[in-house]
UniProtKB/TrEMBL annotation:
One of its GO terms (biological process) is signal transduction. This is Death domain-containing protein. It comes from the Eukaryota. Residues 35-103 form the Death domain. Pfam families: Death (PF00531). PROSITE patterns: DEATH_DOMAIN. InterPro entries: DEATH-like_dom_sf, Death_dom.
């Protein structure tokens, strides 16, 4: 039988995040709608990159948000700590708290 990789609801604490962490992050930041671009800036993504992501997805926020998170995860510098800090800077302590509640996994 083909092995199905279960969606892991944990985020590693100390190590760099990668694309496999996108689903759990996207689920956690689901309530961030109009401010997804600002979150991207706080995550260190250049504004021109965010504009490109925005225009490519024809202004569909869910698609833009996913592409932005995947782009951030591909930088190789994405961490749980940075995500929490960016959410706090955005004034979304509720979402930051949700990320903090996610179990940490050993890699």
């Amino acid at each position: 039988a083909p092995s199905v990789i279960p969606i892991d609801n944990s985020l590693p604490a100390g190590s760099v995040l990668n694309e496999s962490h996108a689903p759990v992050i996207l689920k956690a930041i689901n309530s961030i709608v109009n401010e997804w671009e600002t979150l991207g800036l706080y995550l260190g993504i250049e504004n021109k990159e965010l504009k490109l992501i925005h225009s490519k997805s024809f202004y569909q926020i869910d698609v833009s948000r996913k592409d932005m998170i995947v782009h951030w995860l591909k930088t190789g510098t994405a961490t749980r700590k940075k995500l929490i800090k960016a959410l706090q800077e955005l004034g979304r302590n509720d979402v930051a708290a949700e990320i903090k509640r996610l179990p940490t996994c050993k890699q």
